[in-house]
Amino acid sequence: MATIMAEVLMVVIVIIMSTIIYVWVVPTFTSQTGQDNAGAAYSEKFNTVRGQFATYAASIPETVTLCSASASGLGCSPPNPFVTCNGSISSPYSGNVIVPVNGVCVITANVGSVYVETNANLTVTGATINGGLVGNYSQSIILTNAKVYGFTGLYNVQVVNLQGSSFNTSGNLGICTDACGAAMYAGGRGSFTMTNSTVTGQVENEVGHQTYFVGNHISLRLEVESADQGSIISNTVGSLDLDQNGVVVIASNTVNGSVKYGLNRWCGTGYNIILGGTTGVCVGNVEVDVLNTGSIPVKLVSVYMTNIPLAGGLSWQLASGNQVQCGTTQSVTCTQLPIIIPVGEMAQITVGWTPPASSFPLPWNYIYFIFVSSHQNFVDGYLYFSYGLGLPMQSRLENRICPPCW
Description:
The structure is a single chain. This protein has 406 residues and is mostly beta strands. It is built from 2 helices and 41 strands. The strands form 5 sheets. It has a 17-stranded parallel sheet that branches. A 10-stranded parallel sheet has the order 3-5-7-10-13-16-19-21-23-26, with no helix packed on it. Mean pLDDT is 86; it is low at 11-36 and 400-406.
């Protein structure tokens, strides 16, 4: 009998101990692990489908001023005396110079006015042009550490590259194109680059294909109009006038007067100092479509552009047109985080983008973006100027530390 009682007592003790373990240990363990959403994180899947970044943003056409119609009074051919250069000029020449049709001329000594004819190529290095510079349907005009004491007229020149040079340094502001004080006119569907140069007067640039102004000092107005791609970076200008461009980016400039934004297809701006007023609006948006391919809703809680938390505007909607959860309300379009994507739905996400402080001239090869979900999954990718989204990407899990977990 004693043996039986002892065995029964042992069973009762085991039952009591098991109950204690269940009552105290299991809830404690559950409280430590219940917030770890690893299962949900692995059930969540989403991927990029499509993206746009100023894709096919063509400029608005405009007529280029002809050399023969220029208000400069320089004409299209040099007055006497002049020499023809189809080679080089390395000794000073006080007269004028013409670079003939299909010719090539390298100037390294001071000369008078210079005229560059159809398909001709001019290179000026470390020399002074004591008069006007005219290019008329020329192939290329390249100036490095040069000076032009007079008006510069570039009409349908294919390639213009002006580096570390000075223009209209005599300060003659009596020439009037679309406004008085003109120092330079450039027009035509070519490539135009001006870097680290100084201009006394105004610059008017029209109908360019790629038009870049970087690190220049322009005493009066800078106008960039009807360029396919325009980039105005780190310049100091009297005023700024932008209209009818395809893609134009304006960053890190100092504008001593006003800025005018006309009708530009895609316009991005940031980090500028504008001492006068601003007219019009510069709008630069990028769009990425994200599809929920998982078994649970996706909630995107963070957006990064170029590894910087999103600072611009945000707007999103579902491709299906269904209403979305926007804060505490339902609407078709939402302008705040989080971005909630139901199972099987695709969100069309539009964000405003500001060029980074370390901007460099267009064309940027790409802009990098990251979307992060509430379960710490993320998807990233590249938007290219030329064709939009690069390779579509699938979401993947970030390194997770629990607790805390979402």
